């Protein structure tokens, strides 16, 4: 693994509790007014909202009821690419807005905030990945969607967690060796599943890295009938305890389809909004993020996803601010690797 990345320590990132404490709280009537205003603005501006499952339930709700989309990162990218509307409001983190712009250069892509980053993206700067890749000129560069447009531009493939194992299997069959960046846990998980020859970048998600196997085992003992659902950005010892490992959409499907009444869920807890809707009769339990006496920084909720709310959605729509711009040469190169992901997903 490279020694270059993870320069930014967890302490330099926002804490979820601080973001939530400074976020607006709405009573039922002001929430209704805000949703009505958003509906009107979306119509006027010919816009659609694309939201990730980790955003606040209000944001997911307004995306849903106004004909937008709530999904995982692959489905967000696919939905954006299939829209005829002139404007897309991407409620998530920056790489999701950039992916929408890469695939839809003719559309205006706005985000409720441009401050919503991702620890994987921040810990994988393009110049460092370039330096790393020069050591392995015979390998293709496969990057997770949680990266900047610059990183996507230098990659051979972009992939999301829902199809990462399948893509590496596909390359492995052709004897293509890979450099994998940035998530070391997802990379190791894919490596275990495929036995492919991969060189891994060394970055991680500050949210999933907090899940703890020892306290998860205690929770499992207390809930012997529960199924354990884990996102593959989690550490190996947590993944090893899972009944199902998958992207956010795959975890929601598993919750719906598994016979168990109880689910222990190791991913951002805002997924519970859609998960509960998909499986109203199931009991959802949050996987533990700290051992005995330990503290958590993100506490199973991404601080950057938490920055999206109804107020900044309205401001963005009214002022048409927080637009995503990508230098055209970079965008064109990033389009190739990102569009290959969309095409590859169609073959599955
Ligand atoms: P999904 O593609 O599974 O939604 O994951 C995106 C993400 O950022 C998970 O932390
Ligand atoms: Fe990035 Fe983790 Fe937040 Fe997903 S949950 S956006 S991987 S920091």
Could you characterize what this model shows?
About 45% of the residues lie in helices and about 15% in strands. The model has no long low-confidence stretch (mean pLDDT about 95). The chain is built from 16 helices and 12 strands. It is of the alpha/beta class. It has helices spanning about 15-20, 30-45, 55-65, 75-80, 95-105, 120, 125-135, 150-155, 165-175, 185-195, 215-220, 235-240, 250-255, 270-280, 310-320, 330-345; strands at about 45-50, 70, 85-90, 110, 140-145, 155-160, 180, 200, 225-230, 245, 260-265, 285. Helix 14 (about 270-280) links the parallel strand 11 (about 260-265) and strand 12 (about 285). It has a 4-stranded parallel beta sheet with strand order 2-1-3-4, sandwiched between helices. The chain has a 4-stranded parallel beta sheet with strand order 6-5-7-8. The protein is globular.
Secondary-structure blueprint of this entry?
Elements: H1 16-21, H2 28-45, E1 47-52, H3 57-65, E2 69-71, H4 73-81, E3 87-91, H5 94-103, E4 108-110, H6 119-122, H7 126-134, E5 140-144, H8 149-154, E6 157-159, H9 164-173, E7 178-181, H10 184-194, E8 198-200, H11 213-222, E9 227-230, H12 236-239, E10 244-245, H13 248-257, E11 262-266, H14 272-278, E12 283-286, H15 310-319, H16 328-346
Parallel strand pairs: 1-2, 1-3, 3-4, 5-6, 5-7, 7-8, 9-10, 9-11, 11-12
Helix pairs in contact: 2-15, 4-5, 5-16, 9-10
Iron/sulfur cluster binds at residues 93, 118-120, 146, 205-207, 233, 268, 302, 304-305.
